Amino acid sequence: MKLTRKLVLARAKASDLESVKKLNCWCISIFVEIPNIEVLTLSANQISSLEHISSCQHLSELYLRRNSIPSLSELKHLQQLSRLKVLWLAENPCCDAEPHRYRMTVIRNLPGLHKLDNQGEPIHQSLEDNTAVMLVKSEYHLQQKYDQMHHILYYM
């Protein structure tokens, strides 16, 4: 079934597309015409591209779990959505990578998010923890280089 203007208005109980604020649906090409949508539930569909969502500038919550999104490069279509605070992307092919790496990639691409994949941990805590781990690793590698140089100079 194709998602039409008439069907959207009926499902959202709205008089025009601009007044639609919340919609649970399965086809996303119509979102170009619904710029004021705030909450989208698109879980458990065969969605593979997020291109049509990029015009939804009022979007604050986006539920996309269990779809067919192949790559985290699709996040580029969400980067201009400054009001987006909640994203549920789990159970997509793009999430099959190393979980921590996946989470960090999403956070870096969408820094305004408050909640990712319905996890209770504050999203910025993940970023801070990752930064701390990277700093410790860098410090460790620097210390190793220093020790090597010291050893070479000492035994010359």
From TrEMBL:
A biological process from GO: cytoskeleton organization
Cellular compartments per GO CC: ciliary basal body; photoreceptor cell cilium
Keyword Repeat found: yes
InterPro entries in UniProt: Leu-rich_rpt, Leu-rich_rpt_4, LRR_dom_sf
Keywords assigned: Leucine-rich repeat, Repeat
Origin superkingdom: Eukaryota
Assembly and oligomerization: Found in a complex with CFAP410, NEK1 and SPATA7. Interacts with NEK1.
Job description of the protein: Plays a role in cilia formation and/or maintenance. Plays a role in the regulation of cell morphology and cytoskeletal organization. Involved in DNA damage repair.
Protein name as annotated: Cilia- and flagella-associated protein 410
Top-level taxonomy: Eukaryota, Metazoa, Chordata, Craniata, Vertebrata
